[in-house]
Amino acid sequence: MQIKNRLIKFSITSGLLALVVAVSGVGVASAATLTFDTTSVVSDGVLTLNGAAGSALNLGTTNTTGVITIGHVSASTGNVVINGGITGGTNTLFNNATTSNITIAGALSSGVYTVGTVAATGNTIYRGTQTTGTNSLFDNTTTSNTTAFAGQLGGTIAIGGTAGTGLITLGSSTGTGQIVTIGGGATAGSDVVNIGTGTAVTMKTVNIGAVGAVAAPSTIHIADTSNTAVQLVTIGSKAAAANITTIQGGNGVGAIALTPTGAGSIVIGATDGTGAITLGNSTGAQTVNIGIGGTAAKTVVIGDTNTSSRVTINAGTGLIVTNGGTARNVTGSAINSTATATAAQMVGGLITSTSAIATDITTPTATAIAALIPGAAQGTSFDLLIDNSAGASLVTLVLDGSITVPSTVVITGGATLTVAGSGTNEVGLFRFTFTSGTTAVVNRIF
After folding, report:
1. More confident residue, 363 or 260
2. Are strands 17-22 and 31-36 parallel, antiparallel or unpaired?
3. Which helix (H) or strand (E) element contains residue 247?
4. Which residues pair with 34 in a beta bridge?
């Protein structure tokens, strides 16, 4: 049986085909139902199926076990186009409730598979299973490149929903190795890569490398390029008093190394810091080395020249050993007329006088002096040098009642508390030794 009009030619064999069409004749189109005993329709021109306004066009609606094919399986070179609504309604594929597999372009071996148009302004949504199963994109075995969002010029790419609580994994290879790069493009501007920078008030945990009980070894590089471009690396924040930054190492030599190049400096502590800085905090036996290594001369500076600065070196019941000579470089306090020295002037170690007349320098109490020496007690001592080399008269050290000279002087002149002016015994060195936290004795050394 053949049906011809100006648009359609059918060649019918056997079977049943139901088409609800508008037959295009000489007059206006009208709705009709054509039923053919057929299993194939071959067109030698253009096959057009146009429904009347408001009518439904159904293909294979009663087909329950066969195959519905649109387009030739192997020899087609033209386009197969399925158009939908332009402005309203919903265009839907596979809208029936089903537990079967749905495959789109499952036999595509070359060419391009495109979902959406390059000029689209609407949303393109891929939905997957809600509660069970696995939602997969590009899960076929391949060695080809896979690019997502390659045409994105602006806007935001979001992976994961605002209410998500599940795990998001980038790179989950169990093979021999894989490189996962984030923000690795060659950009002309400055990239910003944010990890864990949301505004949630709850604490975030950001893990890099093996954590917990994971046994896998890790090598972690942070801005350690061999290029000479400037790298600025900040770890931790000082914006809140509760912030804690911990750097841990193993138990080998060089477990934690700070290694600037050449004349680069290492600064520990902020310019406005007032907290304690501790080098070596072990409760066990430990050696703390400062300024060792190599044979070149080292300069080690501890403390500053502020008159209120204090440097305490504790040795317990052991020794303080110096390999080489020692020298004191003291900026003294001037007392050029009779006065009482302050405790700070005493423990400062040097008092100068340029007086042309006799001058008495009275010591403060032993208690006042001890307050400036941490842990001062019986056996604590300090030296005071009185320099009268620029003075023209006698300087006498007058002792407070809490400080005495020994009742028995072993070294001749050990109880002499006067320092003559220019030309005769111009300087005198006095050693004060505490007999308690409130009393002391003084011996003249020279």
Report:
1. 363
2. antiparallel
3. none
4. 19
300-358, pLDDT tens digit by residue?
888 887 767 778 887 777 788 888 888 888 878 999 999 999 999 999 899 999 999 99
Q: Of 298, 368, 361, 307, whose CA–CA distance to 332 is shortest?
A: 307
Could you give the CA distance from residue 24 to residue 48 in angstroms, rounded to a whole number? Answer: 9
Helices (H), 109-183: none
Query: Residues 397, 361: contact at Cβ < 8 Å?
Result: yes
The SS3 assignment for 9 reads strand
Q: pTM of whole model > 0.90?
A: no
> Of all residues in the chain, what percent carry a pLDDT higher than 70?
72
Q: Which residues have a Cβ under 8 Å from the Cβ of 58 and sit 6 or more positions away?
A: 18, 20
Stretch 86-109: mean pLDDT: 68
What is the spatial distance between Cα 58 and Cα 55, in angstroms, rounded to a whole number?
A: 10
Closest among 275, 279, 277, 283 to 256, alpha carbons compared: 279
Dihedral class, residue 61 (left if φ above 0, else alpha if ψ from -120 to 50, else beta): alpha
The answer to whether 159 and 168 have CB atoms below 8 angstroms apart is yes
Of 437, 397, 435, the residue nearest 417 (C-alpha): 397
Averaged pLDDT of the chain: 78
If one compares 203 and 253, the residue with the highest pLDDT of the two is: 253
* 150: its two tokens: 């390659």
CB 185, CB 196: distance < 8 Å: no
CA–CA gap between residue 51 and residue 31 (Å, rounded): 7
Confidence bin at 14 (pLDDT 50/70/90)? very low
- Residue 351 and residue 307 in contact, taking contact as beta carbons nearer than 8 Å: no
d(CA 263, CA 357): 53
Residue 386's nearest CA partner among 338, 328, 344, 444 is: 444
* Cβ-Cβ contacts under 8 Å for 397 (sequence gap 6 or more): 361, 363, 386, 417, 418, 419, 428, 430, 442
The answer to whether 381 and 418 are in contact (CB under 8 A) is no
Identify residue 318 by its one-letter amino acid code. Answer: G
Does the pLDDT at position 219 exceed 60? yes
Distance CA 31, CA 52 (A): 6
Q: Alpha-carbon distance 27 to 366, whole Å?
A: 127
Q: What is the pLDDT of residues 156-195, one digit of tens each?
A: 888 887 787 888 888 778 878 788 888 777 767 777 888 8
- Cα gap 211→209, rounded to integer Å: 6
Is 90 exceeded by the pLDDT of residue 215? no
